[in-house]
Amino acid sequence: MVKPTGPTNPLLKGLIEDLKLKSVEQKVALWKQLASDLEKSSRRRRIVNLSKINLYTKENETIVVPGKVLGSGILDHKVTISAYQFSDSAKEKITKAGAKMIPLNELIKESPKGKRIKIMG
What we know:
Elements: H1 10-26, H2 29-38, E1 46-49, H3 50-56, E2 62-70, E3 80-86, H4 88-96, E4 100-103, H5 104-110, E5 117-119
Parallel strand pairs: 1-2, 2-3, 2-5, 3-4
């Protein structure tokens, strides 16, 4: 018998359901893609360093990481980053750069249509 993988955290399961619902309600494929990425096992979720975010983003962009943001590297411009998890060093460097961190459930409320949002990872 195959051992089931995927999230066991009830908060994460609720977030995934919210993303799927918003995808159907708003007809936005972005939320469905994020939900499917978060349903993967924790070993297969995306991990992104700040150096990569700094390299591939411009000032005032909004990005989503369906996984964890790590603090390796520097961030030298203001961006809005939404992710499932942030490391402590990433939180510190993001606030120091004047950038903004938003939990995924708040991003769904702020931008239900998913316009001008990039997925990284």
